[in-house]
Design a protein that fits this description.
Layout (H helix, E strand, L loop, with lengths): L1 E2 L7 H19 L9 H4 L15 E8 L5 H9 L3 E9 L2 H13 L7 E6 L12 E7 L7 H14 E14 L7 H4 L16 H10 L2 H5 L2 E5 L8 E2 L2 E2 L3 H6 L9 H4 L2 E6 L6
Parallel strand pairs: 1-4, 2-3, 2-5, 3-4, 5-6
Antiparallel strand pairs: 6-10, 7-10, 8-9
Helix pairs in contact: 1-4
Amino acid sequence: MFVRPGDEVTDYRRQWEDEAADNHVASAIGRGSGGDDDFATLTGKVPPLWARFPEGLHVENVLEIGSGYGRIPLYLAHEHRLTWSSYCAIDISETMLRRLLEYRRRFALVPGGRIVPIGISADALPLQADSFDLVLSSAVFLHMGKGHVMRTLAEIARVLRPGGSFVFDVSFPNARNLSTIASRLKPARFRPPHFMKYWTRSEVEAALRSSGLAEKSGSFAIEPGGYALLPKNVGPLPVPLSRRINAALGSSPRFLRQRLAISYNAFSTGLIPA
């Protein structure tokens, strides 16, 4: 495992390291695991976009930003038979990367492929230009400041080979969604370092283009990662019928979807059809 010496221990990094040490599964998927780390628990709460990933694909070099304990490669290798020659896992938490190596051994994750864990911030990658065929990230950018995201996207564009693919799921919380108004109005002093950052769809598209990633990869799509009208909870109190109402919103008129989208996915359409 590579961990760059001398990296500043920021509040952001410390928050993730503390959460990973306390309960790495809950830290990654946002719900308690009860201490279980069986395969079903580890691959729980995988967003629907990954079900559209192609079957039986072999990729020479894969890069994942914010890999955590390996939830996405575990799922893709098992459910979609993804294989690779080299899988580079970037995460700011060394604890998470050690868990990834543990689960790689336990579940025999792509035995013929290398796993290269790197404990480092994603906005300064110690990787060669044009060296990766596929870049993945799941629910990671939403916790970063927008400047950090822009630097990370520029780094991804640099290391992605021309014509390579990317998949970023539920990565950009929607700044216009009605169900998150209370969260967005929370004063800064009450927000943890990894508090969600909100984007409009046009901001997401502008970020992909200005970073050079859109040009490097070719055709791409931005689509809602889910819909919500009501928050699931207000403080500790659940909102009655919110889950049932929100689940029905996928069939809502197209002109309402930018208002109802919880977050946005962005991905290469050469890999996953829109």
